Each structure stands twice: as structure tokens, then as C-alpha cells.
Amino acid sequence: MSKPLVVAIDGPSGSGKSSTSRGVADRLSLAYLDTGAMYRAMTWALLERGVDLEDPRAIAAAAGDVRLTSGTDPLDPTIHVDGTDVAEPIRSSEVTSAVSLVAAVPEVRDMLVDLQRETIAQSAGIVVEGRDIGSTVAPDAPVKIYLVADAAARAARRAAETGEADTAATELALARRDEIDSTRAASPLAKAEGAVVVDGTHLTLEEVIDTIVGIVDAR
Q: What is the Cα–Cα distance from 31 to 93, expressed in whole angstroms?
């Protein structure tokens, strides 16, 4: 039995991973998994439960009671916590500012990586986006992409998504998250061995999708 095609797309916040990954999955008729949404959903659930997110032990203790379910349709990705649709609330500023704290807890990462690998194993082919897909979740993925963009472009994109007028503040927030994500002990943000760097700073979304589809086709 052949292994499913796994396209691992990693990169920092605001680099365009989500739109790009959905576009690539749709173009290639593959499933899609947003692992960042899973960490956001966990963060939302812990905030709802009143867990102290400055306390890694409290996070680890509470995380095991949270049930996450991720849909894999690139045209209609879904994320549920204990059966509740949380696609909108996980994009709140409160979740955004706290998600790196939750994602840095090894017990949370272990739990969610297991869920991610289960989803990959159940697919016929899938595009998976995140920060540690090529390095940790699916190190044997035949296609690994590290998607980047310069700081100004990333801040402009994120501000457009959130409606934030102050792009300078958004850029600072992204830099802070990059620092946390790239220096954490558990599966830090890093370019995986064998990953192809795609710089989307001066490319349109369609051009980035075309580039990655071309890499997949040439594998």
C-alpha cells in the first residue's frame, strides 16, 4: 500500500501559509490540515476554562480534557472543540496573543502531533501547514516547503486579515511570536532539512500556489 502524498508547508506567522496551503490542496485535489488552528482551538478552550496560561503545568493538566476535531476540506476547513464550531473565535486577538504560550508546552505538542499524524495517515493525500510539519510531524514528507515573506509584507497581510490599522504594532507582534516560536524547546519553528524555501514577498497568491504546485509535480 502506497503512502499518502504529504505536502508539508511551514513558515512564520503572516507568510501566507493558510491561503497558499488551501489553494495548493484545492488545485491538487488533496485534503488540507491547518495545524495552527488546532493550537488556536486548544488556546481558546483553555481560556474558556479559565486556565492560567502563564502556568505550563496547568496547561498540560487541562489540555487532555479538550476534544478537537479538524475538517480537511480545503474549500471549507472546520475546527471544533467538544463539538462546538470555533472557527471564528479562535481568530480573536486574545487567542492570538496567547497561542504561543500554549504551543510551547511539550504535553500539548505531543497530543496535537499525535492527532495530526492520525489525520495524515487517514488521508489519500494531504497538504499540512504549520511550523514543525517538515521537521517533526511528517519528517518523511516527500515535499517540504518553507514559506517566507519579509516583515513588512507579513504585517500588512496580517493587518488586512484582522482589520488592524496599525501595521507597525502588527509587525512587532509578529516579531514577538517569531521569537517565542523559534526559541521554544519543543519543536521550534525552523526550516526542515530538505525543505524548499519559497519567498512570497513579491508574488501574488496565485504565483505562490503555482510555484508550489510546480515543486509537487516535479518531485
A: 28
- Note the pTM of the prediction, 2 decimals: 0.88
CB-CB contact of 10 with 132 (8 Å): yes
**CA trace torsion 67, 68, 69, 70 (10° rounding):** -170
Assigned fold of 5-209: Rossmann fold (3.40.50)
What are the tens digits of pLDDT across the range 164-192? 767 777 778 777 777 777 777 777 777 89
Predicted confidence at residue 15, as pLDDT, reads: 87
Q: Which three cell numbers stand for residue 207?
A: 504565483
CB-facing half-sphere around the CA of 82: CA atoms within 13 A: 10
What is the DSSP code string of 78-136? -EEETTEE-TTGGGSHHHHHHHHHHHT-HHHHHHHHHHHHHHHHT-SEEEEEESSIIII
Break the chain into its structural domains and give their ranges: 5-209
